[in-house]
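Data deposition worksheet. Section B asks for the primary sequence of the deposited chain exactly as it was used as input, without tags or linkers unless they were present during the calculation. Section C holds the resulting structure in token form. Section D is free text for depositor observations; keep each observation to a single sentence. Incomplete worksheets are returned to the depositor.
Section A, Depositor: J.P.
Section B:
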Amino acid sequence: MPTRPGGESCCGAWALWAEPVAPVSTPAVLLRAHAFGETSRILRFHTRDHGLLSVMARGVRTRSGKGSTTLDTFASGELTAYVKAQRDLHTMKDFACTRSRGRLGTSVLRFAGASAVAELVVVHTDQEPHPEVFQALEESLDALEEVGEEQVGAACISGAWRVVAAFGFAPELDQCVRCGAPLGPQEMGRFDLAAGGALCQACSEGSHDPRIGPQARAQLRALARGSLDVPVSHPRRHLALLSDFIAFHVAPKPLKSLAFLGEILPLDEEA
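Section C:
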């Protein structure tokens, strides 16, 4: 039998390499799904314990009836998979759905908002645990499914801001990002996209960044923390600021989901 230096047999080394890994289980949200062959799918999950995971789900397209796996986009549940280090694609053993969020598929605006949140997570996370991002993702999707029709537009913008904040890029809205002075309750200023926050009136002189007043700051502050109690005027302006902020700090390439969201957001004063 051939041996490696030190007396280890090649067959023994192969057996060690080929030894199956134990499956791991983690809470997960299904973000994307693609057909693979005639019976399988490639699924992309964001998980609480392993970050972004792509898995091969073999045979799921042929399952039906009792015992079938619910694999709806934006569903939450417990993912069990064989995860191997240094691999980009892993093997799914099971996904036990605990929340399907089927209502997101009944409204174009709700689905667009969920897609924007999901695309943000896909482009900015990796195969490392980010529990704060996972929590923001789940809470944003829950809000998009549960809010009344009059608040869906605001929930779309809020969900994206909550994920951005979970990345560590929360906007500074209480003090000037240039001089550090507290912003007065009636102070008009501008939003410095590169610096990531509001400018006081003095520091806004000569700036061509978007204008932001006390009402817009209050709305943006509420949106970033996930509160929909403050009515949101001019939702498309809020989305434009969000899109520009993301371009500076999160994703240099334009996100298709945000562009589509901008096309369907309501034009009236309330989102």
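Section D:
Helices lie at 10-18, 108-124, 131-146, 152-166, 214-224, 235-249, 256-264.
The chain has two domains: 24-62+74-100, 108-264.
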